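Figure S4 source data
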Amino acid sequence: MFAIGGIGGGSDVEAYDFHAAKWNQMPSLPSRRYDLGAATLNGKVYAIGGEDGRGNILETVDVFDPFAQNWASAPNMKYKREYFGVGVSDGKIYVIGGWSGSQRLNSVEMFDGERWTDIGQGMNKKRWGVAAGVLNGNIYAVGGYDGKVLKTVEKMNPATGVWGSVASMNTATHAHCVAVLDGKLYAIGGYDGGVLKSVEIYDPDLDRWTFVADLNNPREYAGAGTGIKSMSLVVGLVVLSIPPTSTIHKPGYGRSCRQKCLQAMLSHYFECFSNK
């Protein structure tokens, strides 16, 4: 599991070894970035967009090769964005919504390993602070902010690029995270005027959101990653699980103390959820 960038470290990258139960320092990003998105594709780790700490919104992308243990530049996105959602479907990375530095975005870009392409007409709503998840091949844009905090959810079929509405969450939220576990979509924490500890689960067969057990602590701008039968949550970081069959879909803002998070991973800064 990778923790990438953030205000506390900027270019720092660490990997958590679940067998050894410790964090290991990895090669740093070539450039500082936070409010970024991250994804795995073809065995490599992509750090996408975000902000550089000097007020510049980024369209740049860095890619890490775990075997060569180095970072390199990947093709830039077409648009600068931060606070966006990320999903991987059918060997392609999708970036969704976000903030350009001057406006909220509804646009969607797809990366196939070589180039970025605009997809469809974009979401029905402009959303920043949106979280994304991939479920049954469809990409879900969950919550976000368009001038008000949203509880609405949209779903896109990547084959058509067309977005449609599905059931809304019970609670409006943005700056939250989303993870997929056992064919269900989890919306975790976030902000609705106050920091949330609620967790909702979406069943695509029933088209319904249901509350499950709360987090132990309210969290915003967190990252979530899924393992084989459990889900981990780390506050304040972009968290990326490897191999690519594990997914995370929320850029981390890094607002909370990064070092505390790393040093106290077994306390309330690091939470694990199991549906068993």
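Figure S5 source data
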Amino acid sequence: MQQSNAPPSEEAVGTLADQCIAALGDHTVRAAFFDRLIERLLPAEHARVFWGDRMLTLGKSSGFLDEPRFAECYAQIRGSHRYDQYASPHTIAWRLHTLVWAARTGLALDGDFVECGVFKGDFAWVVAQMTDFDRQPRTFYLYDTFAGFAPAYSSDDDFPDSPGFLAFAHNVYSDPTIYEEVRRRFANYPNVRIVRGILPDTLATVAPGRNRNLRGAVRPDCAQRRYRLRRLRLASIPQAETSRGRLYG
């Protein structure tokens, strides 16, 4: 009997998919299965696949991955921290590229750079590298507790969809080795100032100077991850002109 070469019906495909889903009971197995699908299946249909930071694009340009200087910087920080449950090939590359774009755009204006939430310094370091910041006539202020979340400004209520996240993240961000690692990383940047303490409290003593425009990077993975920005009022920055200030996040 001659076998049919007809493709399986949509019903048959749906049944197979349902069987796979039913067999993937553990969340780590589901994540690994999803990674494998993207790695093995999607390239057969799409010339360009970006998968990282829980963002998937198909057939869209991601030319920044081919920029030699960016690729070199990204390679040096890739794997420094795992941001989600997936073993994605591009991790935070797109987010990092967007931040670099914002920083380069900000160079057209006067003023200092500010990062609220430094963690290991990966993002700020790539920005510094990509903008030749050591040659820029401005200061890059890096604010972080380097001791996890501040109880005065953070609580489990900030993460209603992620029970237990606060304790987990606090433990990660409280690593006592991080502060010295960040200091070593920026040792060759005389115009990078690392400020250890709680925001907005530290702004009373260390902040961009008079008549400076504020440019900052507020990232969702910083030590004050879901920090309530309404508490961080730019008007509280002493002797700082912020009328043209911008927050890039």
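Residues 210-214, 218-249 have pLDDT under 50 and may be disordered. Helices lie at 10-23, 27-40, 68-77, 93-106, 122-130, 165-173, 178-185.
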